[in-house]
Amino acid sequence: MAFSLHQQHGQVELKIMDDGIGFDVSTGLDSGGLGLKSMQERASELGANLHINSKPGKGTTIEVVLEVD
User: Fold this and answer.
1) CA 64 to CA 50: how far, in whole Å?
2) CA 46 to chain centre
3) How many CA atoms lie within 13 A of 66 on its CB side?
4) What is the pLDDT of residue 35?
5) H or E segment to which residue 44 belongs
6) Which residue ranges form the domains of the chain, and what is each CATH number?
7) pLDDT in tens, 36-45
8) Mean pLDDT of 9-25
9) Is 28's pLDDT higher than 80?
C-alpha cells in the first residue's frame, strides 16, 4: 500500500493505492455494504470529490480531492 498527499493550485489531493485483489467498482457500490457508500457520503459532506478506480486482479486507487482557499 502507498499513499500521497499534495496541496497545489487551491486543492488538497489524497491518493491511496494498493496492488491487492481489486474489485469491480460497479458491483461494489451495489453490494449492500456500507463502506464505499459511506466514503462517498463523507466526501460529499466535506465538499470533496471521491474517485475509486479498481479492477479485479489489478488493485485499487482511491483519490479524494478537496478545494481549499
Assistant:
1) 5
2) 14
3) 16
4) 84
5) helix 35-46
6) 2-67 (3.30.565.10)
7) 888 999 999 9
8) 94
9) no
